[in-house]
Amino acid sequence: MHAFRSQTCAELNKSHVGQNVRLSGWVHRVRDHGGLLFIDLRDHYGMTQVMADPDSPVFAEIEKVRSEWCIRIDGEVKARDESLINSKIPTGEIEVFIRDIEVLGAAKELPLMVFGDQEYPEETRLRYRYLDLRREAMQRNMTLRSDVVASMRRRMWDKQFREYQTPIITASSPEGARDFLVPSRQHPGKFYALPQAPQQFKQLIMVSGFDKYFQIAPCFRDEDPRADRSPTDFYQLDLEMSFVEQQDIFDTIQPVLTGVFEEFGGGRKVDQEWPQISYRDAALWYGSDKPDLRNPIKMEVVSEHFAGSGFAIFAKLLEQEGTEVRAIPAPKGGSRKFCDRMNVFAQKEGLPGMGYIFWREKTADAVAQELGIPVKDAQAKLKSGEVKGGMEAAGPLAKNIGPERTEAIRQQLGLNVGDAAFFLGGKPKAFETVAGKARNVIGEELGLTDKTRFAFAWIVDFPIYEQDEETGKIDFEHNPFSMPQGGMEALQGNPLDVLGYQYDLACNGFELVSGAIRNHRPEIMFKAFEIAGYGKEEVEKRFGGMVNAFQYGAPPHGGCAAGIDRIVMLLADEANIREVIMFPMNQRAEDLMMDAPSDPTSDQLMDLGLRVIPQEQ
């Protein structure tokens, strides 16, 4: 018999009754039923109930074991009584009577329990991650992650892609985030960098004549942490193709991701139609370049209804250049209570509040005022049906702008009795983010967001440049290496009108994919950087390897990268990315388990020619 096990803790069933078996695993739970000891023995694959009574030759040793001890047992498989069968687990029809036991690894008092669903502080979970990972939910998440990566690889190979590895130690390259720098011992005073992405290398692979590349690539960025972003490193499905246009990239990655989400989405619907929405429309309609299309709410510009109106705040605002008023429709949100809740939300976001209008059945007071009769008579006429109540607009804004304007707003937004609309005004960039959050909150609170599906959308036509309002300086707003739509000709006009062949894929409010058709023409690249204030010499100094390569017959090429951690987070239905990463950092970019970052030794600093300057408190 094998030294540790003849079967796993998930394999035994009624067909094994009467056999002598050997199992190894962890003590999940110990139960003492009046002289009978029951142990739920757990390994990676499942659970088996093992038991002993005082007749067992090792009963005294079994009494000593505690939760999370690692043990080996030998015993005989017995059928459970009909009334004791556990149909929730594959091994629920049998149990193993213990005849021998060996403690493979005893455990101290546990800082967190593996059994049960207790909540522990994140600091405790990350410090003792090896215990946290033993929990059923974490085992499930990590297995899911591994299976998703394997599925992605198979699907890419099926599309005739080959996987190539790119360097982990490279040169520093400005790609939108801070680099992790690595000091060089052999070249004192100089530094390598960990790659923020394999961006330049995968483009050079295309220049080298390889037609299709992919890689499950580690990326390193010194970023501020968020729930959906790791502060240090992450993995992505990275791909690049030669002789392609934007639609070719979409047609390549869509079936890969559709297949993954169908395979691992737990039966949730996966949208087959992925609309292409311009960056500007996404900002207008959803207040975000990663919209959640499960929520049907679409914002609209309603400036014309407030210009010159009795609502002075918006009327005066609209007299300033570049301002507008947008409405967030709220179907079924037509109550003062809900409107007040949304006002509280806006105040928490740093705004004085949000204007609102809601539509309700006309009250007896309103009918009495219209007809010039007492309220009591109006109530009677409404009750008898002699007078049709109709609807009325309510709320402070409705009173200020009057019935004609409120009716025009209602018709534009397609709203009815029981609905509401919220309003934000100013320069769009100043309020779009809050508007997008408000749209999400309204969708959630009113039950409009469909939680049973994955809804995808390509966000396209990103502007390449933006202008600083204070200095007037033109700089890159998005990826500077994207090919401008229209090529060199587009760069001769107003830079703020230049769009790039750049695209993101949004799913359920998260950015899953980012990519572009690359600017592979040196003369267009130099011109694009010149507009943003970067001279030819600086471009050659910063991106010399790639610029030089492009002068030796570079093919048109493009690609994208899909964030694996974020995809698994969505599939696992987790709200925090750390739940799907084996050994994540905490919010302060610390590894509490391994005590990183740590202080270097004097010898290490001397080898590198470095000195640490203490920070002033």
Largest sheet: 8 strands, mixed
Helix content: 25-40%
Count of DSSP helices?
20
Structural class of the secondary elements? Answer: alpha+beta
Query: How much is the average pLDDT?
Result: 93
Total count of strands:
26
Distance between the termini: 63 Å
- Please compute the radius of gyration using only Cα atoms: 32 Å
Query: Which runs of at least 5 residues are low in confidence (pLDDT < 50)?
Result: none
Percentage of residues in strands: 15-25%
Shape: globular
Strand order of the largest sheet: 6-9-10-26-25-24-19-12
Model description:
31% of the residues lie in helices and 24% in strands. It is an alpha+beta fold. The longest helix has 23 residues, at 136-158. β24 (502-507) and β25 (510-517) form a beta hairpin. α11 (364-371) crosses α12. The two termini are 63 Å apart. It is globular. It is built from 20 helices and 26 strands. An eight-stranded mixed β-sheet has the order 6-9-10-26-25-24-19-12, sandwiched between helices. A five-stranded mixed β-barrel has the order 1-2-3-5-4. The chain has a five-stranded antiparallel β-sheet with strand order 13-14-17-15-16.
